[in-house]
Amino acid sequence: MADINDLTGSIVALVTPFTEDGEIDFGALDRLVDFHLENKTDGILVLGTTGESATMTDAEDVAVAQHVVNRVNGRVPVIGGAGSNSTKESLNKARSLQMIGVDGLLLITPYYNKSNEEGIYRHFTTVLDQVDVPCILYNVPSRTGCSISERNVARLCEHPRAMGIKEASGSISYATSVAKYVSPTFRLFSGNDDMVVPIMSLGGSGVISVWANVQPTVVHDMVESYLAGDTGRALRYQLDGLDLVHALFCEVNPIPVKAALNLMGLIPAGLRLPLTTISDAGRERLVAAMRGAGLVD
């Protein structure tokens, strides 16, 4: 297993490819993994928001994670999303993913329940106390309806299994408030593709990225440039990529990114309800941005 405590770079929030009738397409999953291994991706996150884990069964979660772990074969770290609005279910999922060999876990706030501050703290510590792999906290209030308070970040960053936070609030003010807890044992990752360089300027170590699904080399090079001290080059990547990034979020994620990967010939067009096919207007905007990025003719 890889040690992700020092993880930096571009970690792709991998889509889960489905056939037209909604079954997991393991052949397409192999193509995606190989695409990332060949194009500088520094780590792979499975079963996140972009992976449509909310529509997958526990057995499917394990099957996808196991397939990716086997295909990667230790070449880059694999992180498994173990999120749930039930703390017990999150712990069960975390244990299952740990058993099949993921290198780390992503733990989301307990969505829908909208617990109070102490409940959110105990949700995380219950899992952190009972797993053996490093964990990344995931703050994405637009999806969950609640946030990890600064006080909870201050407490959780001291836990030996909490190695970082994926910050996807879209608020530079919040990111700045939690950046003070960045240390050699607690890392900050951007969860917003349009804010990677700003987050890294606060001490961030990289990004957990939707954008990297379609331009893995670009996202890797942006982060690598910043970490190497070439902030001007990193900024050019960030600004030049904004049209594509905004198109990838013109409708709810992962609808546009799966449409983009389909246009690139990497996956079929399958989604699971309640997600459905991208609108005509969204597709037109996406194609235009992909042309501008050189991804399609």
Share of residues in helices: 40-55%
User: Architecture, according to CATH?
Assistant: Alpha-Beta Barrel
The biggest sheet, with number of strands, parallel, antiparallel or mixed sense and barrel status, is: 8 strands, parallel, barrel
List low-confidence stretches. Answer: none
CATH fold category name: TIM Barrel
Radius of gyration: 18 Å
Family: Belongs to the DapA family.
Subunit structure: Homotetramer; dimer of dimers.
Active site: 138 (proton donor/acceptor), 166 (schiff-base intermediate with substrate)
Organism: Olsenella absiana
What does this structure look like?
- Pyruvate binds at residues 50, 208.
- Keywords: Amino-acid biosynthesis, Cytoplasm, Diaminopimelate biosynthesis, Lyase, Lysine biosynthesis, Schiff base.
- It is a single chain.
- With 297 residues, this protein is α/β, with parallel strands linked by helices.
- It has a single domain, classed as Aldolase class I (TIM Barrel), CATH 3.20.20.70.
- It is 43% helix and 12% strand.
- It has 13 helices and eight strands.
- The protein has helices at residues 26-37, 58-72, 87-99, 117-128, 141-144, 150-156, 172-179, 196-201, 216-227, 231-240, 242-248, 255-263, 280-292, and strands at residues 9-13, 43-46, 78-81, 104-108, 135-139, 162-167, 187-190, 206-209.
- The longest helix is centred in the N-terminal third of the chain and has 15 residues, at 58-72.
- The chain starts with 8 loop residues before the first strand and ends in a 5-residue tail after the last helix.
